[in-house]
């Protein structure tokens, strides 16, 4: 029997790849692998510049995963047969520059710099002129900045393509269909099927995997008197069953439909511009009109501008307003962006959790969760895969407690 990975986004594919490398038999199930949030993501590996005052656990997880990225990228490139090594997934390490315009922004940056220094994070406070020396295309109105030289980024679309190639070379089966339910040892036949709710028109118009669940509540959320049986496999669309020694649930924003995990979709619109010459050499972030915006340059001249954060359920429409705000704010940081070609606009669904920390680890017999990575799934993919594959030891192993499902009580 095999270990079944439900979901082939950056998390599910990374987990499957590490398990397969360790010689464990795995199967991935996903109707649209490498789609989902991973297709939308900018790919920043930026635990330092993304730090907030209340998210120290996330910072610790992010720093540990960032340390893993160079070896992860190099091994992945070798396994996928990419001749250019880690550059094949566009791993870049030039750091992130957080810039400020007004007096309030500068004061906030000073405060953040002090907080980061207290945590021992390597950041450098720069004047406006120093910022423009590093990035000449920055607006003249930029008055200061904070350089997080250790932050990095990758191209998530190249990462998932490489993961799929590596899995194919290892002959890992990829089942292109949807999982409708987890099979449990004590599951009375037909219980889940009877309780299935219909797709909403919104689900269908957004092209989402269908949501299953007992009427009136999300599948997996159990009443106190229901016993959680051992998970023995998954039921596929059409009714076929796939038995498994372990099921790894990595279905991103859709995870709550299959198990009682507190994961919700957080919409992000993001656009990709194209220029003959790269406009920037490092990631640039800033707060414009009170909303954060970032620009991520790729080696091939692509410039990613992101991203909105919207609590709109399973809505993946790209809106005129979202596009307008992103371009307006990006132009404040780098006026030259308006000259670039608009290449791509998408909306993705981040798998958000109540504390913004992912949910990774065993959740009962036969079930492992690898979900809820919210804004940082690309960054956290190497660490998540290592934790699930049992490759993380020592200090890293200790981080498992930070993202353990146990912090939310019993998961069905
Ligand atoms: P997903 O990539 O969403 O994959 C889930 C997969 O599960 C999908 O392929 C889906 O088809 C499949 N699935 C769902 N239901 C079922 C089912 N019933 N049966 C089988 N398969 C199913 N993170 C960063 O680290 N850095 C960034 O710069 C960054 N930028 C982002 C920008 C935007 C606009 C967005 C939206 C996200 C960004 N993120 C970023 C977050 C990151 O994209 C996510 O955390 C990450 O992609 C989550 O990966 P995942 O594999 O869990 O989910």
From TrEMBL:
Organism listed in the record: Nonomuraea bangladeshensis
SUPFAM superfamilies listed in its UniProt record: FAD-linked reductases, C-terminal domain, FAD/NAD(P)-binding domain
Sequence ranges assigned to domain FAD dependent oxidoreductase in this UniProt record: 4-193, 217-389
Basic and acidic residues composition-biased segments: 187-205
Keyword Oxidoreductase in annotation: yes
Domain of life, source organism: Bacteria
Protein name per its UniProtKB record: FAD-dependent oxidoreductase
Sequence segments annotated as region (Disordered): 187-217
Record keyword Oxidoreductase present: yes
Keywords tagged on the record: Oxidoreductase
PANTHER family on file: GLYCINE OXIDASE, SARCOSINE DEHYDROGENASE-RELATED
